[in-house]
Specification:
Elements: H1 3-29, E1 33-38, H2 44-59, E2 63-68, H3 73-85, E3 90-93, H4 102-110, E4 115-118, E5 130-134, H5 136-150, E6 155-161, H6 167-180, E7 186-193, H7 198-211, E8 217-220, H8 223-235, E9 243-245, H9 251-258, E10 265-267, H10 270-287, E11 296-299, E12 302-304, E13 312-314, E14 317-318
Helix pairs in contact: 2-10, 3-4, 5-6, 7-8
C-alpha cells in the first residue's frame, strides 16, 4: 500500500474509533430528559430562565428541551403531557397560572415525574418537590423605597401591574403599597394591568397620560412594562420629568439605566434559581432524596441603579 494511502487509512481508523468512543461516552452520560417549560421565550427574563436550566441539565449529563406556554394553561397541560410521554426524569416549570396550573402539576406527579416550580408559585403545597422564587415582597420594598426617595416623597404617579393570574403581580403591588403608603404626599392617580408586556405598557401609559398629563412618576411590576411606559413618555416629550422604576433586571432595562431613562430596576436572580432547580432535580434523580428544609425557596432580589450598573456582568447577574 502506498505510504500516503496507508497514513490516510490509519487516520480514518483513528477518527472512526474516536467517534465511536465519543458516542459511547455520550450514551453512558445520558441520564435522561429534563423538560423545561417557561412562559414566553421572547421575553429576555424567561429566555434566560430556560437557557440556564437547559445548559445546567446538559452539563449534568441530561438531554433537555425548552418550551413556552405563553401564559396559556391548555398549552401548558399539553406540554406536560408531552414530557410524560417522552419519559422526562423531571419537569422544571414556570407555571402559567397560580391556580390553573395545579392540575398540570398533579398530572405529572401522578405519572411519577417530579416537578420543580421556578419564578412563579402555584397555590398548593405538597405537589411540587420545590418552588424556587424571588423574594418578591423584599424586592418590591427595595424598589419602592428607592423610587420614593428619587421622587422626594411627593407627586402624582401611576402604577403598571402584571398579570392577575401570577401571584408575583399582587405581591409586588402590595409591596409597593406598603412602602408608598408611608408617604402621604405621593398620590397614585392611575393604575392598570399591562400583563408583563412592553406593548401593553406603552398603550396603558398613553391612556394614563391623556387622563393625567401631570404624572411625575411610574412604578412598574416588571421591566417590560416600564420600558413600554418609557417609549410612551418619550413620544409625549415627558420622560425628562417622570421617574420610572422597573423590576426584573433585564439587559434592556440595564441599558435604559445607563442611558438615564430608567431610574432603577430590581434584579431577580433568575440565573441562580433556574440552575438550582435543575441541580435539585439531579439530586432527587441520583439519590432518591432531596435535602431541603421547605418546599418554598426564596431568593433575595438586588437593586440596580446608576451607581452600581457597571457591576452588571451578564443577563441577570450582578457582581457583589
Amino acid at each position: 500500500m502506498h505510504k500516503t494511502a496507508k497514513r490516510l487509512l490509519i487516520a480514518a481508523l483513528v477518527a472512526g474509533s474516536a467517534l465511536v468512543a465519543g458516542s459511547a461516552l455520550a450514551q453512558s452520560q445520558d441520564k435522561g430528559l429534563i423538560s423545561v417549560i417557561v412562559n414566553d421565550t421572547s421575553n429576555p427574563y424567561w429566555f434566560t430562565e430556560g437557557k440556564i436550566a437547559r445548559e445546567t441539565a446538559e452539563e449534568l449529563g441530561y438531554r433537555a428541551n425548552v418550551s413556552s406556554h405563553n401564559g396559556d394553561t391548555n398549552t401548558e397541560s399539553n406540554q406536560v403531557d408531552t414530557a410524560i410521554t417522552n419519559q422526562a426524569r423531571a419537569i422544571i416549570l414556570d407555571p402559567a397560572n397560580a391556580d390553573g396550573s395545579i392540575g398540570a402539576v398533579r398530572k405529572a406527579v401522578n405519572a411519577g415525574v417530579p416537578v420543580f416550580i421556578v419564578n412563579a408559585e402555584i397555590n398548593q403545597q405538597g405537589l411540587a418537590k420545590a418552588q424556587l422564587v424571588s423574594n418578591n415582597a423584599q424586592g418590591a420594598a427595595l424598589g419602592a423605597q428607592q423610587w420614593a426617595q428619587i421622587m422626594n416623597g411627593e407627586g402624582q404617579y401611576a402604577e403598571l401591574k402584571g398579570s392577575p393570574s401570577d401571584n408575583n403581580a399582587a405581591t409586588r403591588s402590595n409591596g409597593y403599597e406598603t412602602v408608598l403608603s408611608q408617604y402621604p404626599d405621593l398620590e397614585r392617580v392611575a393604575v392598570d394591568v399591562a400583563n408583563w408586556d412592553r406593548t401593553q405598557g406603552y398603550n396603558k401609559m398613553q391612556s394614563m397620560l391623556q387622563a393625567h398629563p401631570n404624572i411625575q412618576g411610574v412604578i412598574s411590576g416588571n421591566d417590560e412594562m416600564a420600558l413600554g411606559a418609557i417609549a410612551a413618555l418619550k413620544q409625549n416629550n415627558k420622560l425628562d420629568d417622570v421617574v420610572v422604576g422597573g423590576f426584573d433586571g433585564s439587559p434592556d432595562a440595564v441599558d435604559a439605566i445607563r442611558a438615564g431613562e430608567l431610574a432603577y430596576t430590581v434584579l431577580q436572580p433568575v440565573a441562580i434559581f433556574s440552575e438550582r432547580a435543575v441541580r435539585m432535580a439531579d439530586e432527587l434523580i441520583s439519590t432518591g432524596n432531596l435535602d431541603i428544609e421547605s418546599e418554598k425557596q426564596l431568593f433575595d432580589a438586588m437593586l440596580i441603579t446608576p451607581d452600581n450598573v457597571d457591576q452588571y456582568v451578564a443577563p441577570f447577574v450582578l457582581e457583589q
